[in-house]
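Before a computer can learn anything about folding, someone has to put a protein's shape into writing. The outcome of that step, for a single protein, is printed below:
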Amino acid sequence: MYQVVEKISQLFDEQGSHTYGENVTQTEHAVQCAELAVRANESAELVSAALLHDIGHLLATTDVAFGNYKHDAVGATYLAEFFPAAVTEPIRLHAQAKRYLCSTESQYLTDLSAASLDSLQHQGGLMNEDEQLEFMRLPFARQAIKLRRWDDEGKVDELSGRDFDHYLPYLTDSIKNELQA
């Protein structure tokens, strides 16, 4: 196993019990999002992105109630040294995907949790039409939207029932795939 994968597992063991305004811990949320990606038959890279999309909350917490409003960039920047863009860019863009979906789907905005509504304001609020078009031109925008939808769905008790380490082979495969490319 790669050292970074062990380090990530340890980070979730030590800090994954925080909730940041949702009804599930960071570890439960990560596992649920990864499980949704697995059930959608996604690549190892997108499963890895789903598992790690909120790692920035664990790396640099700034708000006790809702975590780090820039967790997307913090997490993606940290992971970029080890993982391919197919993992890190959906993570970097998942807050922007929320802004996009809130701007283009009225029901999406209505259904956001209190924590997501709070962070939306700190992450730029609704996108105007130019911002929406610019976002959709980004290489990993569609993957970020998938990730964002799993982010919303992965907040219920007992969705997966698996532990965090069950998904570590996806991280290892993502690294291997990048090294073989």
